[in-house]
Amino acid sequence: MEEYIKDFLVETLEALAVLDNDLVRLEAEPNNASRISSIFRTLHTVKGTCGFLGLTQLGKVAHAGENVLGRMRDGALSPTPEVISAVLRCIDAIKDITATLESTGQEGDRDDSSLIAELDSFLEADGGAPVAVSGDSDELAAAFAATVAPDRPLPPEIVPPEIIPVAEPVKAASPEPAAEARREGTIANQTIRVGIDLLEGLMTTVSELVLSRNQLLQLARNEKDSPFVAPLQRLSMITSELQESVMKTRMQPIGNAWSTLPRIIRDLGLELGKKIELVMEGAETELDRQVLELIKDPLTHMVRNAADHGLEPTADRLIAGKAETGRVWLTAFHEGGHIVIKIVDDGRGLNAEKIRRKAVDSGLTTEAEAAAMTDVQAFRFILRPGFSTAAAVTAISGRGVGMDVVRTNIERIGGTIDIESKVGAGSTFTIKIPLTLAIVPALIVGCAGERFAVPQISVVELVRASDTSEHRIEQISDTAVLRLRDRLLPLVDLRQLLGLTGSAADDSERLVIVTQVGSWHFGIIVDRVYDTEEIVVKPVAPVLKHLGVYSGNTILGDGAVCMIVDPNGIVARVGRIDISAGPRGIDARSSVASTNAGQGRRMLLVRAGSGMRKAIPLDLIARLEDIDVNAIRRADDGRLLVQYRDSLMPLVLAASDLVMKSSGRQPVLVFADRNARCAGDAAGRQRQMGLVVDEILDIVESDLRIEIDSGHPDVVGSAIIAGEPTEILDARRLLHREGLNMADVQAMMNVARIEIEEPVS
Amino acid sequence: MSETNMSGLSAMTRGLVTIRVANQPLGIPVGFVRDVLGPQGISSIPLAPSAIAGSLNLRGRIVTVLDLRTMMGLSRTESPEKAMNVVIDLDGELYSLLVDQVGDVLSVDESTVEALPHTVAPEWRAVSSGIVKLKDELVLILVPDTLLAMASVAANTGLDS
Q: The whole model's pTM is what?
């Protein structure tokens, strides 16, 4: 294809994407003259370039659209829904032709005469034949002048013409659009277009650099007096900064995935005869380009669902005493290392009773189980394949395909969906997805002498299992299970699954990685866990794709290649675990759902000092460590420090009367700023701190019903957890009290600014 | 772009990197060859088809290692971490061939290339486009694209087993 046609396509497609939204907004505020002018200009440019490139078909369509817009700009035609629909269809036609042009290099032979006739009819209806728009020649002259200007510097006394002189008379009334246009101009000058290949290449190179740096640091660690140490430290910092900057280049505002939604909702509203308003907030929230691509379709589907199923017909709304116009809110914001997207509607809400009945009818659950289920648990059924409660199937949705696909797509990228709803008041869908897929924290495990990475997002907990310990692997026929907190956890032996023949050094003690896939919990048996590492995920070679067990591969700090085990793939391979059935699954899932609903929460039970047991919400804790007490140092101001993962980590005692062991290892709960990777700490260090306890007892789920308010500032209150009175520690206060920067503490805790605050204030 | 142009030779000749596998001299068109590496640390990939010996790290890129011996119907390379690696680029993906020995780059006159006799084993015929007759030995010309197709076939059969 000719280079200039390519350029034309890129520019046109970009301009058209904006146009859809501009038109929808124009419909809402028909008197916005600058908006009309801007749409007019876009179409005009397309038309003009078509003439220049000899694209007659495209030119004709654009011209017809431009005429209508020109009439609107002159105030002779008002932007009624019919007119806007016709113009939108005109833009669709332009998109179609450009798409054909892109794939075949030809305009293709399509017949747009009826569309053109329809557009022309608007001109006639308002009197006057479809003539060239009056401002046309000025516009051309202006465009021409603007094109020439940069090449030939004008004498200083001549002011370069504004690019939008035609809009001038209208603008006299409202001066803001001009300023806006100029501002846009400067922004445009500060950005350049760069191919994605180049960025991906940059990312690969930086990953290599990081690995080489890690190797160098490893070497330098053994030679303390080497003159290389100082420059190496500098290199290390620069590398971290570079890595973060490159990561940022991959970030895009989520608004890019939303750009088509206003148009979809508008068309939907017209089709269904509903009045729908789509409110979008947080479009500037950034996330990785790759993630953006993957959530685009699920989001579109969910917004469509909210407008179609969620919102009731206008008549019903009026009967229910609601505003005539139904609203759908789409919001996005950052929370910890995640991005949270909420889709809220003020429609009829989900009917838990109806869902229960449907679930029982379709054999997904039993009467008794359904009755015992909370509403939140019941709502999750709508995420199952083939589950639709819609009475009527519309052209848009209601066929029961969709929500399960949405769920699968979101879970595939390590995200979660939660549903809240109240009959008559509307529904809220909350999606939580990681900011990036490129770098993920993973557990490096060993099995039969080989190393594998397991993404931490799917790891729920680690359990040590041996014949002598509390947890023991047992067999039901040939299936291994583990008794975990009075429940049977199905196990998959990674060694068996992967057909590994090598044997572990020590067979008596093995580790179980408790994993959650969808709503199902199961355990993966491995020989040992080496470490956690931030890994750069790379796709597996095409010849290995069919294996399914690996979600990618990565290069570890020591330069070795390591396969990333995909728990979804394991489930698929094992096959015997049916992830879409079973009350256990719903149960397990509900714990997550209800966490967000503020009902139950996973707590880590610890013993620290004398007195009551203590509990800390598990989701605040990044890692549990055993730290050698000999490595702990006391600074001059009495603060405790330990070298941990290449940096100094401050330690705080969980209780004032806690006495550390004099030798051996002390359990420490590590809190880390989960945002550091993405948000970027200039020095590239990760902010973290440790809370020293005497013993880690267990993980329990608790309602967190504070029984007694405590006078102690470090304690939120006391509650009965697992049948025993327990003090709930306020980790934030505790860490802050020890002189740690409040912003740091805030950053660490922002993952869970939950209800725990309420009892305190 | 053909490999002939990349190697800077005239249209009638082409460059071949000569390698040796199980004592059989083979030639790979130089245009495909990205790197020649000494023995490398190779991580195994459980469940992978037998033609795939594992993967290695080439300056931050992950390279899939193909075991030419298994592909030729011979026994597996005993210790892949001791073999030489010839890294080839197939449509942007990197693959490494485990070979016993890497020799010179031959500049071959197209007219001296002869088709494979029908009596040669089908595994060889599937991946070779002809034979170069040298003074003291015969060099089989490998067509790298077909290697991948073979590895995939092996992959599919590997799935059944």
A: 0.51
